[in-house]
Amino acid sequence: MYTAWEEGRALALKMLQPTQKELEHGLELHRSSFVFDAYGFMPGGGGKAERLEQIIAENGSRDERSAAREEFSSNLAFFQNPAMKKMLREAFEFSGVDCIFQNAGVEGNDVERMLKRLSCFTLLTDREEDLFERAVFPEKLEGIRQRGHKALYLTTNGVPLSSKLVSAEEALEHIAVFFRLGVRMMHLTYNRRNLIGDGCAEKADGGLSDFGRMVIAEMNRVGIIPDVAHSGQRTSLEAALCSKRPVVASHTVAGRLSTHFRAKSDEVIEAIKKSGGYVGICCIPRFLGGSSNICAFLDHIEYAARKFGVDHVAIGTDRSTTLAPCEFSGTPAPSRRIWESYWPDPGDGGSKVTEEQFNSLMWLNWPCFTVGLVQRGFSDAEIQKIIG
Fold this sequence. Notes:
This protein has 388 residues and is of the alpha/beta class. The chain is built from 17 helices and eleven strands. β8 (249-252), α12 (266-275) and β9 (279-281) form a beta-alpha-beta unit.
């Protein structure tokens, strides 16, 4: 096995310090359980970014470069290398993950831009069918696992909205289109304010718009999960209260343990619980507070699970793992961040995340998460709900 993977696991276990019995039981429970990352990114990276290099050399536009990066980052070139494909299989085996709610739609509401990323993962699951299957109905998951394949459930970082805006009904029509293309979850907002509501980075925290309520009603009708992970507190609360079907915060942390603006308050989590949804605790050290490592991550899971119940807590890592270096000649010209990726000052004095904090929560450490939950006294059935 790869040295960096083993070192990352050893680091996490050193922080956890499980007994031999806890370690053995946790690892066996992880191996025998169905493991579902509630929001993340499949492993990848590596290979030569030829298309991106060509576009940069031709002075291509920002959007051309973005599309080339999407194509590269979704591993379409990666699979041409047998050694990298073998490494991918081994990464999934090392992690024990069976299914990922995969980010497959670019941040924002622009239909054309969202389709570009979505098309990459549609092609990926069609072409690499010996590895992946695109999951669109939950009852199909067990069969996918029995066939020895990994499942990708597709989610988008925004709701696709028609730019015509002739009528509210026409503005909503692409929600059903993306459902037919396999998308099963959508972010209502991404950090900033949009026509649906306020994002988590907006200080005004203005809540859900009237049109946003129409969006949620249409998502309920079609069968797409509203995701408030990047929504403001009030938008998140009002979405959970008005939805007739479950709402989730797929990758977040507990506001009681962290002051980060991506955290969710107890009031919001309670509303999500009452909707039938869940909060997915993420593996981003800066969001966690405290020790900002695997122990702090488990603190958030334990807090949410004890207070709101294991049926309403998941793990949405918001992480991936880079399996090999990217081969790229030349230096891309710098560009401004896209409008949707706006992040305010974190308010932490600019403290940096340490390598130890980051590596203790690497995506490949999923089995350590299960070991940690065994340590915290959760039953096997409870742990299988949290990790599955």
